Every structure is written in structure tokens, then in C-alpha cells.
């Protein structure tokens, strides 16, 4: 199968049709029509076999997750997903793999209203790169730099499930049979919090998505905002599938340092606390208050009201 046939069969005319795509796949560039009064939010992510995913990861999950990771970045800015490009490097043309990969990719694309408008296909080690474009009303994007002393710290969903799911897959952890599928699914099929991101616009003072672990990602907000924070470890939202299978110390380690939760962490001034609760309830997203922004530049923890010393660090790529 030639490159053009491959594109035609698996990627052209699939998924969302958007009226703002003037010219899609097939020319040297795609053309899109941005919405007036909005700015374009752009982000890209690369997944390399053996580094970001194992060779035996189901292709459908890989297709879904490649896009979900990008959508999570848009969510963290409060942006609405619109267009994506896909750069694929593949060692060979494996039609079964491509069929499943594209199925997972377009499942996420359809759900979140993203059109595939172009890409690049080459031979090489297996590697997936997606560039996503979203739109957000001018001056309304959620940034890392807006947290203020006294703001409350919140997260969506539950923390640490994805990292435990990964440990189950690698054989590093064993869990009760009835919890296995849930935890592995949280690793393979994370939910990008796009609706929550919209709901937070104009209300949250800062936001970030949790890809490298809470400790590390909250650290980015603290640095960008030039503040510190106190996190109450007993307030971290944990799934029963997690707490059923590991002790408290391990649960905290998963929640604070486990990567790829793709939940949102955000800060809220006291004046917007009620409005946020209403907005997130409407978005149907669970959320929890886990601490508060304070003066200084340190991330501190408490457990049952007492200071808690820890060495919890997030994932580092280098
Ligand atoms: P060029 O050589 O001008 O970069 P290509 O021959 O690589 O163009 O690609 C032809 C068309 O197919 C372009 O519109 C490109 O955006 C699109 N395309 C290539 N690979 C992919 C892919 N994996 N997914 C979606 N579109 C693709
Ligand atoms: Mg090309």
C-alpha cells in the first residue's frame, strides 16, 4: 500500500466535518476560518514507541489517547477543540493496526468535535505526533500564571488511577480482579476535561492539566504565578479502586506523582467559589478542593492537620 492510499483509506473523509474547514486533506496546506473574537490555541504532543507507550498497547487505545492528551491541553486553557494534524511515522503498513488506531482516534475526534485537516506520513520508528488547534474567546484563556495568595486549589476527577493502571500492565502491581479493568481503562482511555475547561473560563484564576503528576504540575502553576501552596493530603480525591488495592502511603504517592491522569488542576478566588461549583455541576464533572495558595514559593503538605514531609516528585522526561 502506498502512502496516498493509506491516507485515503484510513484518514480522509472520516470523523467530524466542520464548516470552518475551507480546505481539508489533499493539498499542500489546509485552510481554516477562525471565528471572530476568538484566538487560536495550539498545542502538540509526540508519542514514541518504547518511550511513551509499549509496543503491545492496543492500537485503538493508542489512537484515542494520542488525541485525548492533546485535548487535555486545550481543556486546561479553556479552549474549544477545532482542528488537528497527524504526523505518523510507521515501520511498515500494518492495515489491521491502522484500522484500530484510526478507529480510536476518530472516536475521540467525533466526540469532541475535532476535524482532521492534514498531516504527514513517513517510514520510521513508530511515532505519533498530533498538533491540535482550538479556539478561545479573546482574553479568556486560562493560564498558569494567574494564581493569587488565598485562592483555593481544586482538581477534577480522581488522582493516581492511570499510574496504578500502568503498574498493573507492567506486572509491577497486582490488584483485585474486579478493579483491574477500571484502572487499566483509566490509563488507556483518559477523559480530557474539555467541558470543565469551558466552565472554568472567567472564574478560575489559573489552570493546568495533570500529565506528569500533581506535585510536578502544581509546581508549574506556583512558579508561573510566583506563589506557594499548602495541599491537604487527606482531601485528595481517590477512587475506591485505588484505595481498595494499595495502602495510604502508596495511594498518596500515586496521587501526587502518578502521570497521565489528564484531570484539571485549577485555582479559584473565594469570590468565585460558589459560581465554580455551579458551573462544574452543570458540566457534570466531579471536583474537590485540595488546598490553598499561600505566600512564598514552596509546595507544602498537611495530613490530618499536621505538616507532612514528603519527597513526592513528578515524572521528568530527562
Ligand atoms: P506534502 O508532500 O505536500 O507535505 P503529502 O504528500 O505529505 O503532502 O500529503 C498529502 C496530503 O495528505 C496533505 O494534505 C497532507 O496534509 C495529508 N496527509 C498526509 N499524511 C496524513 C495523515 N497521516 N493524516 C492526515 N492527513 C495526512
Ligand atoms: Mg509530506
UniProtKB/TrEMBL annotation:
Q: Which residues bind Mg(2+) 2?
A: 45, 73
Give the GO molecular function terms.
ATP binding; magnesium ion binding; thiamine-phosphate kinase activity
- Residues engaged in binding Mg(2+) 3: 28, 73, 209
Q: Please state the Enzyme Commission number of this protein.
A: 2.7.4.16
Question: Which part of the chain is the PurM-like N-terminal domain?
Answer: 26-136
Tell me the residue numbers annotated for binding Mg(2+) 4.
Answer: 28, 43, 73
Q: Which SUPFAM superfamilies does the protein's record reference?
A: PurM C-terminal domain-like, PurM N-terminal domain-like
Stored HAMAP family: TMP_kinase
The name this protein goes by in its record? Thiamine-monophosphate kinase
Gene name tied to this protein: thiL
